[in-house]
Amino acid sequence: MKNNLLLLLLLFGGCSKSIHDERPNIIVIMADDLGYGDVGVYGAKLENVKTPNIDRLANGGIKFTSGYASASTCTPTRYSFLTGTYAFRQKGTSIAPPNAPAIIKPGTETIASLLKKAGYSTAVIGKWHLGLGETSGPNWNEDLKPGPKEIGFDYNFLLPTTNDRVPQVYVENHRVLNLDQNDPIWVGSKKPSDDHPTGISHRNTLRMNWNDGHNNTIHNGIGRIGFYTGGHSARFRDEDLADEWQKQAKKWIEKNTDNPFFLFFSSHDIHVPRMPHERFQGQSNMSYRGDAIIQLDWNVGQIMKTLEQLDLIEKTLVVFISDNGPVLDDGYDDYANEALGNHKPSYPFSGGKYNVREGGTRTPFITYWKGKIQPNVSDEIVSTIDLAASMAELVGVELPKDGILDSFNILDVLLGKEGSKGRDHIVTQDNGLRGTYGLRENEWKLQRHDTKKMYNGDLSMKLWDVPEYSLFNLENDISESENVANKYPKILNHMKTKLQLIIDSGKSRK
Question: Which of 14, 98, 172, 468 is the most buried if burial means most Cβ atoms within 10 Å?
């Protein structure tokens, strides 16, 4: 009897170790404002910009042609990615201002907290833009709590907002890095003094001119949104951001090789202000926007190089995504329009950042796991919002009943299991302020505009007149150029009803 019991214990222990050993490290690389057509394998012309490292991921993994961000701007997509819940369900998830408090509250289940339950070490390195601190906003000179560490991350090294907004400092865990308490940081929405230099009063000193906003405090010769003073020893140089992300990611990975880890690598490239490191400047034919794409690709290559050096390449699932579609002129005169040439950032779609046309939310989406994922191209519908439920399934953690409300388990699709199916529908939104939604169901696409204007219809930042509802057949009209709402009233009504039901129901995960 004792021998039988011992045998069962040995078998059980061996089985458990085998399952644990199969758990991969997980790295999610999120680009910023990268369009579907900005990557070589998705249609970028090599004479304009080359992305060999991202292309290598796609050619060695699964290139998804229907991969979606859940929103066409950064804060709501990041909220949805982390929480597995559509951002339109939570007030305050539009583009976060410099002094925004923590948008994801402590106790909220996230992809990080789920993986932490499974024994993973967790970190976020890069752009955050989800607020820090209590409801009154961050006190930049004290502990910045709550933040990532209160929602499942063991470690964070952050650009706290987004780099066209102040302040230009790093936040490591709960504190501003290298802050001199004798030179405290002040951040506000109004000019702190009459003689405070701004992009308006000192425009002749700027090395990158602004054309819409971005004219408050000047840092590194570039105007920003919002005002700040102090913290001079903590301020960074725009050109050094990508190098710092690479340095911190490598250091953290090297420290966490003994246990499975989850790294959310959140690049700021290719968001404005586009100011890549000097060694990348002039490397493309598309001014700083193209150079920033090359810098982003370098970052991807450095992460993969680190995995290879540490013999982790076959033990790591890498997911590459973008937070939304592309934008050219986004407030600075950086010649993104003038140097575009024949490059098509949203190719083959229309629209881009700020709207719910396909170009605004359908982005590069790649999964790579050497030896586990077989190279393929998939047309299945997948979304950033699904990574929470899918990674929970991968590591064997149950989802909460009151959280991760819209994340679907599509793990089999992400890993390329033959015959597996992705979503049959996905809801997308803009920044949440204009009440704009997109609903794709199979080949049908509904646009709903609660206001009568749309931005960025052709990446020009013009205002466009739009009807409240538009219907498109993506199988026949990938550019959403022919509104067929009047031709298919039954389908239109079905889509309108379904969208409203998803909005009203409070959740879409079964």
Answer: 98
DSSP notation for 226-250: SEEE--GGGB--GGGHHHHHHHHHH
Any residues with CB less than 8 A from the CB of 310 and at least 6 apart, and which? 253, 254, 257
Can you tell me which residue has the tokens 């047309």? 379
Report whether 298 contacts 336 (CB < 8 A): no
Task: Classify residue 217: in a domain, yes or no.
Answer: no
Distance CA(396)–CA(258), nearest Å, equals: 20
Are 492 and 410 found together in one domain?
Answer: no
Domain extent at residue 492? 425-505
Helix axes 287-309, 241-255, angle to 10 degrees: 10
d(CA 49, CA 484): 36
At residue 372, what is the residue type?
A: K
Picking from 381, 414, 447, the residue at the C-terminal end of a domain is 414
- 139 and 42 assigned to the same domain: yes
Domain boundary among 414, 441, 467: 414
Into how many domains does the chain fold?
2
Q: Which helix (H) or strand (E) holds 264?
A: strand 261-266
Strand boundaries in 293-395, DSSP class E: 316-322, 365-368, 376-383
CATH assignment at residue 433: 3.30.1120.10
Burial class of residue 510 in the structure, from the number of CB atoms within 10 Å of its CB (0-12 exposed, 13-18 middle, 19+ buried): exposed
**Bridge partners, 322 (sequence order):** 31
Q: What global pTM score does this model have?
A: 0.95
Q: 316 has which bridge partners?
A: 25
Could you tell me if 46 and 113 lie in one domain? yes
CA–CA separation, 391 vs 411, rounded Å?
7
Burial of 99 (0-12, 13-18, 19+ CB in 10 A): buried
Are both 59 and 174 inside the same structural domain? yes
Q: What is the pLDDT along the chain (510 residues), one digit of tens a residue?
A: 444 444 433 333 333 333 334 799 999 999 999 999 999 999 998 888 999 999 999 999 999 999 999 999 999 999 999 999 999 999 999 999 999 999 999 999 999 999 999 999 999 999 999 999 999 999 999 999 999 999 999 999 999 999 999 999 999 999 999 999 999 999 999 999 999 999 999 999 999 999 999 999 999 999 999 999 999 999 999 999 999 999 999 999 999 999 999 999 999 999 999 999 999 999 999 999 999 999 999 999 999 999 999 999 999 999 999 999 999 999 999 999 999 999 999 999 999 999 999 999 999 999 999 999 999 999 999 999 999 999 999 999 999 999 999 999 999 999 999 999 999 999 999 987 778 999 999 999 999 998 877 766 678 777 778 899 999 999 999 999 999 999 999 999 999 999 999 999 999 998
DSSP state of 478: T
Nearest in space to 480 (alpha carbons), one of 468, 470, 491: 470
Asked if 445 and 304 sit in the same domain, the reply is no
